[in-house]
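Exercise 7. Given the components listed, write out the predicted structure of the assembled complex. Treat all entries as one system.
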Amino acid sequence: MFDAVLLFREALYGALVIGLACSVIGVYVVLRRIVFVGAALAELSSAGIALALWLEGQSMMLGVATHPIALALILTIAGALFFGAGGGRGRIPPDATVGVTYAVAGAAGILLISKAAVGEAHDIFLAGNILGITRADTLVLLAVAIPVLIVHTVFYKEFLFVSFDRETARTLGYNINVWNLLLYFTLGVVIAFAMQSAGVMLVFNFLVLPAVTGLLVSRSMSGVFLWSVASALVASLIGFTLSVRYDLPTSPAIIAVSGALVLVAFVARLGQRR
Amino acid sequence: MAELVSFDGATLGYGRRVVLSDLSFSIAEGDFLGMVGPNGAGKTTILRAILGTLKPLHGTVTHTPNIRFGYVPQRDQVDYNFPLTVVDVVLMGRYDRIGLGRRPGARDRDLACKALEHVGILDLAEQSLNLLSGGQKQRTLIARALVGEPNVLVLDEPTSGMDLVSTTQILGLVRELHERNNLTVLMVSHALNEVANYVERIALVMNGGFRIGPVDEVMTQPVLSAMYGIPVEVDSFNGHRIVVARRDGIADADV
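Answer.
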């Protein structure tokens, strides 16, 4: 079994890097109650990839600017900055704006891919193609994840303060808009790159489930981060191994293990209370 | 006493919407001011202008150099889902002093513990914030405001949703902080009867009007009737002022 896993080790390394980066940012995603912003950004990213493939089919490629990663980044970061700035505050509630983005971006992605040269269908967007990750992909993911994690480590207390109590942070001179935009920017960048191979479902899973496990298990912020990362890595490792051993689709296998970890954490929490 | 914050013909609002116009008053060092008015009257707007997070549409709001506010937000403004201990929250009051990208040190922790001792909950330092009672949460937020060594302590609806005992304890604590340390205090509330018996000056914000002065001057039947727009009576019971609204001869004790 381990020989088979080793055969796909590059893909496993990629999944671990995606899990690591998403599970750190996911703590803020869950605590700030913006899980559907994560989903909408993932859909925007998939729409960017689909747009690039559609342009390729129309022979309208314009070099780097229309590369799938470039278009996914542009759309995702634009969405992240839009939501980070308040998501068009006004008559429409912010969560409705997120819903509109999610639906329109999702539909646009499917429509574009259906008319693209590479019509491999939208399943790849949903389930991803994690086994297709190469060493080069993993290195790119690392090149994105490491700076993002450094930013989150260095500015931990600033992100925490503006997330926990923005009004007080503002009175102490913090520029709330700048910190929000930086937080959402890192979220957008990670999603845009992770989406290239992990798909909407797995990226959304890594943004939400590990953080929920962390919150169930730990009562301190550092503990939540540690448990979130640990559960994302364990879920990747076990899910990946099971998918290879039993010929299961990899992303759903990882998600199933993530779900099982949430369940174990939930039961453990219940046990603690009694 | 030196003036810490001065409003000079200030018109406050958001965009084109004017909330209050032509405000002129000041908060002096050592002041103990209560700002009272119903929800939506503009208390928060004035508060933001005092804190410097809202610029006036017209006129000026001047702050003395190096002024530092210790802000205690409304309790529901804070997200209790965050897994933070009491001391974690108090340390936030020093974040701007610690500097960007740096972590709290031993001195910051000492100061946080002293602030908790000051408000009487040092024994709860390592307790999870979400396990505290309403009064304990409020004391935590006051300790966080104090740990930054402010010139002015600003409390927004500090007793909102609290029972009688907690309300009395919190208001007593605030008065003690003012008297013992000569700390300038601004307390915002919608409950006139609570605030009037603790502060030294009152600012009334209601029906687009604004009136500020010593408690004895503002807490009178003509002033309050004019501000509220209904006939009221001001009575005294055991040295406590009680404002009573009269409606068709039936007294309503909670204005």
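Discussion: Chain A touches chain B at residues 31, 154-155, 157-158, 160-161, 163-165, 167-174, 215, 218-221, 223-224 (CB under 8 Å). Chain A has one domain: 2-268.
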